[in-house]
Design a protein that fits this description.
Subunit structure: Part of the 30S ribosomal subunit. Contacts proteins S4 and S8.
Number of domains: 2
Pfam families: Ribosomal_S5, Ribosomal_S5_C
Largest sheet: 4 strands, antiparallel
CATH architecture of the largest domain: 2-Layer Sandwich
CATH class of the largest domain: Alpha Beta
Strand content: 35-45%
Shape: elongated
Order of helices and strands: EEEHEEEEHEHH
CATH topology of the largest domain: Ribosomal Protein S5, domain 2
Keywords: Ribonucleoprotein, Ribosomal protein, RNA-binding, rRNA-binding
Family: Belongs to the universal ribosomal protein uS5 family.
Strand order of the largest sheet: 1-2-3-4
Number of strands: 8
Structural class: alpha+beta
Distance between the termini: 24 Å
InterPro entries: Ribosomal_Su5_D2-typ_SF, Ribosomal_uS5, Ribosomal_uS5_bac-type, Ribosomal_uS5_C, Ribosomal_uS5_N, Ribosomal_uS5_N_CS, Ribsml_uS5_D2-typ_fold_subgr
Radius of gyration: 18 Å
Length: about 170
């Protein structure tokens, strides 16, 4: 199995988007402790790099900041063809499934809120998506990343088959 190359977050022009903020209350002897959990997607659309992270804190801005720091450690390079994905793919995580399908120029990103955040952060401009199963943002994002990691370009497929790109 090939090692994943570490992506340097400092050299990228990363844009972040908050996908969800969850208020969590813990009941303790003295009353209730409130905290916030933020799910954040970051990416560089020009480079095709995207990542996600989760952060928890007593206040929303700190939770978002922690989520961004977590996302910078979890960056992935996405194989794209011009403005769309190379082929149809189905990603799974838990009870969540996400189908990604290439679309012709001018279609735009047809996706729900969670998947749209990932696609726009990755720099995909034309794609059709469908979220199947779980609507939990954590599961949907992880299923979307599973699908993006499965994407292969022609050069990778040719190398796996031991053929030239022209033979495919």
């Amino acid at each position: 199995m090939a090692m994943k190359k570490k992506i340097d977050a400092n050299r990228l022009n990363l844009k972040d988007e908050v996908v969800s903020i969850n208020r969590v209350t813990k009941v303790v002897k003295g009353g209730k402790n409130m905290s916030f959990a933020a799910l954040v997607v970051i990416g560089d659309p020009a480079e095709g790099v995207v990542g996600y992270g989760s952060g928890k804190a007593k206040e929303v801005p700190q939770a978002i900041r922690k989520g961004i720091e977590s996302a910078k450690k979890n960056l992935h390079k996405v194989n794209l063809t011009e403005s769309t994905i190379p082929h149809q793919v189905l990603g799974h995580f838990g009870a969540g499934q996400v189908m990604l399908k290439p679309a012709p120029e001018g279609t735009g990103v047809i996706a729900g809120k969670t998947v749209r955040a990932v696609m726009t952060a990755a720099g995909v401009q034309n794609v059709l998506t469908k979220s199947l199963g779980s609507a939990n943002p954590h599961n949907v994002i992880k299923a979307t990343f599973d699908a993006l990691i499965q994407l292969r370009n022609k050069a990778e497929v040719a190398a796996l088959r031991g053929k030239a790109v022209e033979e495919l």
